[in-house]
Every structure is written in C-alpha cells, then in structure tokens.
Amino acid sequence: MSKVTENYHIYLKATELAAIAAAKLRGNGDGKAADKVATEAMRKVLQESNVHTRVVIGEGERDDAPMLYIGEEMGNLDSDLKIDIAVDPLECTNHCAKNLPDALAVLAAAPRGALLHAPDTYMEKLCGSKELIGKLSLSNSVSENLKATSKALQKEISDLKIIVMDRDRHKELINEMNLLGVNPILIGDGDVSGGLKAAEGSVDLLYGIGAAPEGVITATAVKAMDGFFEGKLYFMDQAFKERAITMLGDKINNTWSDDELCSSSDSFFVASGVCTGWIPGVIFDGDKAIVTSKIIFGDTKESKIITNEYLIGE
After folding, report:
1. Which of 107, 79, 105, 77 lies closest to 93, judged by CA?
2. pLDDT digits 0-9 by tens, 260-281
C-alpha cells in the first residue's frame, strides 16, 4: 500500500465514531443534532491524529448545519504526510432522524491537491458501471443517455433501474424518463450509496443533482471500482457561483470525470453505517457498539467490509 492508503485506519476510526455518535440519536427526529455529534466525534479523531488532514470539500453551509468546514486543518500540522479529505460526517441526516436506511458517516481521502477543492454547492451527477464508460455524458440528452445505457447493458429501456433524488428540481428529468417508459427509483436522501449501487451494478444509473461533497466522495469510490462517473457543478445561489469562481476560475463549468475529481490512485473511500441499508447500521448491545464499515482502496482496487466493537459509556 502507498502512503495515504496505509493510514486508512485513522479515517476508519473517524467514521466509526461519527456513526456511533449519530446512531445514538437515530429516530429522534432531529437530524441536525445527530449531524452535530457525528461532526464532533470525527473532528476529535482527526485532531488527535499524527497526520495533517485538510478538508477540501465538506458539507454544512447550505443548510446551516454543523460542519467540518472547507479549509479546516487538523492533526499534526508539521507532519510530512498531508492528506486531503472530502467529507460528510452524517450523510442522510433526515434518514437518521427518521431511522430510515442508508445513513452513513463517509469520507474520501487522497494526497494533498488530488481532490476537487470547491465550495459546498450542488453537482449534476451521472454514475454507473464500467460497461458505460465512454457511452454516456452529461452533455447528452436524457433520451440519448438512457438509450445508450439500454444498448450497453443489453436491457429494454423500460427495465432500467435508475436512482433519482425525489426533489422538485428533478421534475423535468423524471418526466423525460417517464416518457421513455422508465419509472425511476426515487430516494429522499443518500446519493452516495445510490451512486455506489450503480457502480457495482445492483442498479443501472444514478442520475440528477445532489450535493457536491458527496459527488467527490462517490467519484473517489467509483474510480477505485473502475466504474463510470461524471459530475458538473450546479449553482442554485449566485454567492456559491462567485465562491466557485474564486476557487476554480474558468473551470467552474467543467464536466469532471472520476479521474479528475480524484486524480490519485493513492486514495480510498470509507463509509460506516449509521442506519442499516447499503451497509449495516450500528448495533448497540449493552455497553458495546458494533459498527460496520466499507473501505474501497484506489491503489489495489480492494474492497473490505470491516466490523469493529467499541465500549461505550452509559
């Protein structure tokens, strides 16, 4: 393993403890409170580590939630090992609040400068399995992409399983799919797990606009899985566009591949389950918390499921 990936255990512990903290508040109706404790748990691990960690894209500004803020630096600032992360301490805050599937503590890590450094905005996303590489593009129409997917996967268009977030902004997208005979799988939150389901082939596509941090996180995993991913920043607020121009210049209108969103194979994706779904959620058993995580390594392409136990206080 290389320098970043051989230090995965620090970030695994960070997502594990964030997941446990959030899981204690599962189903209580307060996603922001769960997000706050997950953020605090993750920050504490990274602050105490011997690695210099920097957040290059993170969640929080858009919904006034607690956040690991963009540009935040943690750990040993004098360390020669400098790692950038894209992070969401609690992906699917609403699902955690309601104890619904696929809430995760999740991050992607890579060497300094290897992940897209951008504001907390939105991103158009198109994601699928390796069979779709070179066949699809966000610059194509929905009809063109669905017909190309149908051909590449040797399926009828009406049989395609496509995950779309259930948002008003997707009304036109959903209508176009319906006209082609597709009934998309609508999700409330959780497009990280949706994208990885598409990359591994359990569904056919993730399509639509979601959060940019989750886009970079997903792209890092998809790159390691040899899948297909394209993303393009999407601005609902002029202030975010102006911030993006400051950070990215004339690249703000780029369509980014997974290799461009994460430019190094010395990288990894890690997610710890909060609520059972794509990954099992935290199990509390007396004074123990049992947490399951999935790690995907960019250098070896290896995927691991890891289950660890922690003693917890009353």
Report:
1. 105
2. 999 999 999 999 999 999 999 9
